[in-house]
Amino acid sequence: MIWLVLFLSCLGLICAEVPFNHKVHNQRVIGGNDAKPNTWKWQASLQYDPYSDFYQHICGGTIVSPSFILTAAHCILSMDASLYRVVVGEYNLLQYDGSEQFRRVDDIIVHPDWNGELGKGNDMALVRLADPVYDNGYVSIADLPFPDQMLPHDFTCFITGWGLIDYVGSMPAILQVAPINIVEHSVCSQPNWWGSIALRTMVCAGGDGVISGCQGDSGGPLSCFTDGAWRVHGVVSYGPAGMCNQVTKPTVFTRVSSFLDWINSVVRQ
Questions:
Q1: Can 135 be counted among the known catalytic residues?
Q2: Within its chain, how far is the Cα of 252 from the centroid?
Q3: Which of 143, 182, 185, 220 has its CB 3.0 to 4.6 Å from that of 155, i.e. a possible disulfide?
Q4: Catalytic residue, candidates 22, 57, 74, 111
Q5: What span, in angstroms and rounded, lies between the C-alpha atoms of 43 and 60?
Q6: Which of 22, 123, 189, 212 is catalytic?
Q7: Annotated catalytic residue, options 65, 67, 189, 218
Q8: Homologous superfamily of 156-257 in CATH?
């Protein structure tokens, strides 16, 4: 649900638009391709059904324990847990592959410092599942980075999700993946990039005008191979309104390494 974002150039602020009515069509993460089945096993789909009609994918997520999914705070459209479900082991949103596990949501914990302003950071939430997920060969718990770890400029990570490509409502059926390069804070915080709303508790990646996340990717993982393992270093937070893949406007993620204490405190409870 990223790209529920307006860039207000006169104020230098960003804010969320009303929720997008996601429908599934045949497009992909911008600059990406169909992911190989059974690869990004920690990826989750957060789905929402406010009308008791049918669930729609609204955001991505990351499995951080059998009972908890990490996502973005701005993905939480209501604190009524009964309106959500989480699907793990998902690949094709339009068909049942036999790999999926569907879970009701029991509780939603939003970071206590989240105030609804994406440019202020803390865009993080944990969703507690009513029943834990299990390893069926298609699901795994994500490894996380070390505390306060920051990646070097141009380091290649991967963004995955079911986000938009054409800004008129098209979404992919199949999970998409794209390589995306880190933009270090000293660059991303420059005035012609994201300026002062690029905080050290965020990770910027992309900004080449080719590859980016887009609406529907919010809450999903930024996966990077570091220290001998695939680790989730970021949670998709925001990007530019309109065309998502804009030069010098990279996709911005909440930096997981800055929030490990909070994640662990919630999960361990």
A1: no
A2: 10
A3: 182
A4: 74
A5: 7
A6: 123
A7: 218
A8: Trypsin-like serine proteases (2.40.10.10)
Contact yes or no for 158/224 (Cβ under 8 A): yes
74 is catalytic: yes
Residue pLDDT tens, the chain, 269 long:
544 333 322 222 233 322 222 233 333 478 889 999 999 999 999 999 999 889 999 999 999 999 999 999 999 999 999 999 999 999 999 999 999 999 999 999 999 999 999 999 999 999 999 999 999 999 999 999 999 999 999 999 999 999 986 566 568 899 999 999 999 999 999 999 999 999 999 999 999 999 999 999 999 999 999 999 999 999 999 999 878 989 999 999 999 999 999 999 999 98
Q: Tell me, what DSSP letter sits at residue 152?
A: P
Query: Tokens representing 135?
Result: 């390893």
Fold classification of 38-141+260-268 is Thrombin, subunit H (2.40.10)
- Two tokens, residue 212: 């980016």
8 Å CB contact between 234 and 251: no
Count CB-CB contacts under 10 A for residue 115.
11
The answer to whether 123 is a known catalytic residue is: yes
